[in-house]
Design goal:
It contains one helix and eleven strands, in the order H-E-E-E-E-E-E-E-E-E-E-E. By secondary structure, the protein is an alpha+beta fold. The chain has two domains: about 40 residues; about 90 residues, Tumour Suppressor Smad4, CATH 2.60.200.20. A six-stranded antiparallel beta sheet has the order 2-1-11-10-7-8, with no helix packed on it. The protein has a five-stranded mixed beta sheet with strand order 4-3-5-6-9, with no helix packed on it. A hairpin with a 2-residue loop joins strand 7 and strand 8.
């Protein structure tokens, strides 16, 4: 009886290990698929300023001076909750969240604007470029 229990335990452990291995492989494959789908939705975009890049990895991104902002711009000319970037069906939009200094897209003061590649965004005194994400080798 003890030998039978030992064999059953070994078989159970091997089956669990196999299940865990299959789950890990499936998760890895799903991650790659999801990343490709997300890149199609977002256009694989980023904001860039002097030597700094901010990848746009969410469908809503808060820009501001506050510590809870997704993109934190620690500058007194930037409001705590300055702007919100959103993406829907591959179209990025920027919206002013009631900031004091406003948002300028390509030199025009806007409350809300659809963004296009290489648009210049001014938030406070910060100047950001909305662009397609560069390959790490290009940096």
């Amino acid at each position: 009886m003890d030998t039978l229990n030992l064999v059953l335990c070994a078989v159970s452990a091997a089956a669990l290990d196999l299940c865990a291995f299959v789950m890990i492989l499936t998760a890895y494959a799903d991650r790659r698929t999801c990343r490709k789908q997300w890149e199609k939705i977002t256009g694989n975009m980023e904001l860039a300023e002097q030597g700094m890049t901010y990848p746009l990895n969410c469908d809503e991104i808060l820009i501001g001076r506050h510590a809870s902002a997704d993109i934190r711009l620690p500058d007194i000319s930037v409001s705590r909750y300055h702007a919100m970037l959103t993406v829907s069906d591959g179209v990025w939009t920027i919206r002013d969240m009631g900031s004091k200094s406003g948002i300028y897209v390509n030199g025009n003061l806007v409350k809300e604007a659809v963004l296009r590649e290489n648009d210049m965004i001014n938030i406070g005194i910060r100047r950001l470029v909305f662009r397609r994400r560069r390959d790490k080798r290009d940096r």
